[in-house]
Input
Amino acid sequence: MKKYTLLAILFSWQLTTACALVDGDEPVHLGTRRELFVDDLLLGQLDGTRLKLHTPHKLRHVPARPFGHYATVLQDKDKLRLYYRGDKVPGAHWRNGWGKYHEGEVTLYAESNDRGIHWTEPNLALHDVPQIPKGNVVVDMSDDTFLVTHNFTPFIDTREGVADNARYKALGGGKYPAANWGGWKTADERDKLLKQYGPGGLKAFASADGIHWRLLRKEPVIAESLGSFDSQNGAFWSPAEQQYVCYFRWFDQGRRAIRRATSKDFLNWSDPVDMQANEPGEHLYTSCTQPYFRAPHIYLAFPTRFQAREGAITDIVLMATRPGSDRYHRHFKEAFIRPGLGPRGWGNRANYITLNAVQTSPTELSLFMYGGAHYVLRLDGFVSIHAGYETGEFITKPLTFSGHQLELNYSTAGAGQLRVELQDEAGKPFPGFTLDDCKAIKGDAIAGVVQWQDQTDLSALAGKVVRIRFAMNEADLYSLRFLPVASDPN
Output
């Protein structure tokens, strides 16, 4: 069982579900939420079935895409907005000292109107940067943005009632190294930088259009003493928690780790909570934690796993966490995305996933990698309940639901199928909803509705404690949800 740390506020029903996991005597209150199998919320009995990790498919022969470290892609209606780091003097890393290196950084912008296949870098004419003639600079270095351009990370604020001029928000900033750190050009460089630019930490920005950004407060909103920040520090509005949430990097006894803080107003943040995620001796760089767009009560993370003693080789892992939790769930400790064929992915810090998985077709989502690679995966297709050639079974934990139909995201082989049974808490099938009553489910569907005999309507069972039993062979089950009736606002 995963133990969830409760915050000092009353969360919505998602956090109530987490409490039920602790006690073990309450059913999972599912409502009409879509649930994936990235954690153990619904996992009851697996008999002849297993969890399977699915690897994203790398697209070949796609056009070149702009890229830079600590990139963010936002799905803004039919447009994808890409923010990434650039440098006025490419290749000048440390050459002129730590401060001069960061003074050359800028935040660049590109956009795509065809789901991430072709990208344009518009001439915005906001900042006169001769070294970047394309003119796609959205944030240039100034006294107020020193270190901000290193990892400027925006998001679209979905909070109800958010002001039009603050629909887009962002955090960015860093931490000054110790005075005796080897990257300083001179012994007093740190004092000079502090005097000119002020203290480090994460600063808050807002924008009406995602292009023109303004600083909300000169002082950092998350102090440099609380984290390391030399990473991508992602924030978002959580509808589940009704507050802003930020996952940022810190050093935990010499290893790169993750912390979490929350805020009601985006300016005043809570004391951080140390997230439990790292395996022994493991470094986790950019956590890339965000609500999954099809199930925003599930926060997915795609951190860079950093091999500090192996030439800084990196790969990507998959984790999940829930609102209010102090730990990530990892069914699979191994890589989600490997460095791949050829030398490109095997260099120093070569693999970082762009923050946010975005939907790029009716059936697929996309993940973009530093370096330009484009990966696709079926919707919800991270982890499945998998059955091989022999028929196996999966039974969920006891749950309650609202709605009137059971929708599944599934795939079968030509010889495969699924059947579904609804049981009471004691494991007795409800009349009319047995395996024998269920019409065999074959094929491949993102949103297939289960049918028993000639009916799909489950309204009579809504609110009752049920278990869902699946009998399946050569099949994968990726997610499930109970569909609301047309008049149900949920």
User: Anything to note?
Assistant: The chain has two domains: 32-54+384-483, 57-379. The longest strand covers residues 405-423. The helical segments are 13-23, 98-103, 189-197.
